Structures are given as C-alpha cells and as structure tokens.
C-alpha cells in the first residue's frame, strides 16, 4: 500500500448549510478531545484538532461543508497527522474520523447521547489462549507420567 499523508471521508446529511455549520461549531462543547483551531468562512471549512483519548496522539481534521440544495449538505472530513507524518495504514486515524462522524451526527440531531466514541476492547483472548495452553500442557504431562510408570 502506498504511503499517504491523509485519510478522507465524506457524507451527505439532511441539514441546511446553516444547521451544519452551527452543529460543527457546537462539537467542542460536548466532546472534550476535539478543539476548534480555525474557521475559513470563504471556503466554508473548519480545522479541528482531535486528540485520541487512549494515546497521546493528535490529528488535524479539516471539515468542509458544501450545500447541495435547500435540504442536504455534503460534509467532507480530511484527517492528517499533526506533524505531517506519512503512513501506509493508520487505524488510529480511521478511529478519529469515525469518532468525528459520530460527533457530527450527534450535533445535527441535538442529542449528545447519540455520540458513541470508540472504546478499545480488552484483550481477553490472549489470556484465554495462555490458560488453555497451560491446561493442555499439564494434561499432557500427567498422561505422559502415567504411561511411563
């Protein structure tokens, strides 16, 4: 996979341009790890800083809105590392864009409970595997002792 500097996502929402803009500006109020950095009124774009809660990693997310008609708006998310680092695959940035989409959806609906940030699952399978191997080894040693005696 070639190296790249950004990830992009776009979606279409059922909201006017004004509603989409107001919703975007309200996101930092209820999501503490998203901060508004700049707004370009002419280009109808916003620059946010997203900090991944589990790690000390920051991403810049540029959001542009484009009114399609009186009822629908196109929202484009463009995420990149804050230091401009290139990457071939970055799951954390994909998580950041997913969280940002969830925050936009919650802001448009006006319901903070809709916002579902990513929470990593605990790795129980690794412990299960270790316990299973230990039990199998114990059983093998036990049966080997019986055969040898």
Task: Give a written overview of the molecule.
The protein is of the alpha+beta class and 149 residues long. It has a single domain, classed as Alpha-D-Glucose-1,6-Bisphosphate, Chain A, domain 4 (2-Layer Sandwich), CATH 3.30.530.50. The protein is built from three helices and five strands, in the order E-H-E-E-E-E-H-H. The chain has helices at residues 17-30, 91-109, 124-148, and strands at residues 6-13, 34-40, 45-52, 57-67, 73-81. It is elongated, with a radius of gyration of 23 Å. The termini are far apart.
- Specify the CATH architecture: 2-Layer Sandwich
Distance between the termini: 58 Å
Rg calc:
23 Å
Shape: elongated
Q: What's the number of helices? A: 3
Order of helices and strands: EHEEEEHH
Broad CATH class: Alpha Beta
Mean pLDDT: 84
**Major beta-sheet overview:** 5 strands, antiparallel
Low-confidence stretches: none
**Estimated share of beta-strand residues:** 25-35%
Structural class: alpha+beta
Count of distinct strands: 5
Task: Order the strands across the largest sheet as they lie in space.
Answer: 1-5-4-3-2
Estimated helix fraction: 25-40%
Please name the CATH topology.
Answer: Alpha-D-Glucose-1,6-Bisphosphate, Chain A, domain 4
């Amino acid at each position: 996979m070639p190296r790249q500097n950004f990830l992009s996502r776009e979606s279409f929402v059922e909201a006017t341009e004004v509603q989409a803009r107001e919703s975007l500006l309200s996101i930092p109020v209820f999501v503490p790890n998203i901060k508004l950095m700049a707004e370009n009124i002419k280009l109808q774009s916003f620059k946010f800083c997203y900090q991944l809660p589990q790690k000390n990693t920051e991403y810049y997310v540029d959001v542009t809105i484009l009114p399609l008609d009186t009822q629908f708006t196109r929202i484009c998310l463009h995420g990149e590392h804050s230091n401009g680092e290139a990457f071939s695959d970055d799951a954390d940035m994909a998580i950041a864009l997913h969280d940002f989409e969830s925050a936009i959806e919650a802001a448009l609906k006006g319901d903070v409970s809709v916002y579902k940030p990513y929470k990593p699952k605990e790795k129980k399978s690794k412990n299960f595997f270790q316990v299973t191997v230990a039990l199998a080894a114990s059983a093998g040693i036990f049966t080997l002792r019986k055969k040898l005696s």
